[in-house]
Amino acid sequence: MSYLLQRLFGRLPIGWLQLTHSRTRFAAALAGVAFANVLVFVQLGIMNSMGAATLRPYDFFQADIMISASDASTLTDGGNVARQWLLQAMGDPDVSDGMGLFIANVPWDRGEKDISLTTFGVDPVKTGFLSRDIAGDLNLLRVQNAALLDRLARGLAKEEAASIRPQTPLSFETQGRTITAYATFAGGGGFGGDGYMLVSDQTFLSLYPTRSSSAPDHVLLRLRPGAETESVIARLKTLISDPSLRIRSYQEAAQEDLRYQQTKRPTGIIFGFGVLIGVLVGIVIVYQVLSTDVADHLREYATFKAMGYGPHFFLGIVFEEALVLGIMGFIPGLVVGTTILTLMGKITTLPLGMTPSMAVTVFLGTIIFSALSGAIATRRLGAADPADLF
Fold this sequence. Notes:
Order of helices and strands: HHHEHEEHEHEEEHEHEHHHHHHH
Membrane topology: Multi-pass membrane protein
Number of strands: 9
Main location: membrane
Pfam family, one: FtsX
Subcellular location: Cell membrane
Shape: elongated
Keywords: Cell membrane, Membrane, Plasmid, Transmembrane, Transmembrane helix, Transport
Oligomer: single chain
Number of helices: 15
């Protein structure tokens, strides 16, 4: 390391030698930086998992435009959309097909613990609105009270989920009816439910008799090949009689849902503050280490200053220390952070895990904020007079 820093800075690695002079203090400083990294990794991991969990149900479907009620900030919130607007939308020459989407949470008594399944009611004939891995099993939903079950649902054993096939279906009671799962798909637990379930719209309405087939939660539209989505949306806003409806592209609806979860919902705001606190803790730790080091070696720095070395020389030394702390503290932080996120993901079934982008972001952030802490720590040295230091 000493040789590498000497080659990098073109001088004696004074910062490295000062840091390693007291190995106990050096280890404590690295532990502090690693702790701050772990804190940021965990908070970022949870925030990312919230984003992945929010967007996951959108992956179950394929659509170009989604029509929602005016208060529908997320996929599962908001009022209903009258089916008559679907029929009006079909009047546009570029709209090739449409489907009403029903959504509700269905409880499932699992004995020791009840779980909640976010359930989608779809038209089993319209396979074009479902993702490829689900569309192949959609014909199974033509049977009354049939369902496709999330095999990654929280509280559902892997062996039990793996045994669900058309030949060996799984039946359970909910909402006073017997639902039979004939196949599974990959979903996973989220923040609003323990998993997902797909049923036909008729089965959905039998589970919720107060709901009406004329009022789905959202309307999904498919466009003809080559049609411009924004142009069709503009026409639909004049074609459909209800101006309060939210007519958006399907991708835009997903991103608006994500922004709402991250900036409006308490959980998203809390996780955002967690990341900010982790960054501040890291800055304070690195600043404290570097500031203490500058204070401990103030006489040596004063000697260099009296010999004519300028501020850039001292800034280089402190930056060298910040770089060493940032890099060497990041490595154990990455290992511990990855381990914690992996364990949390297995326990909660949330999409928690280390991603390359997250690791790179935290690494660059660690280097930048370590350098910032170093720059702040040198302010005392820059204002000092060598004559006052002895």
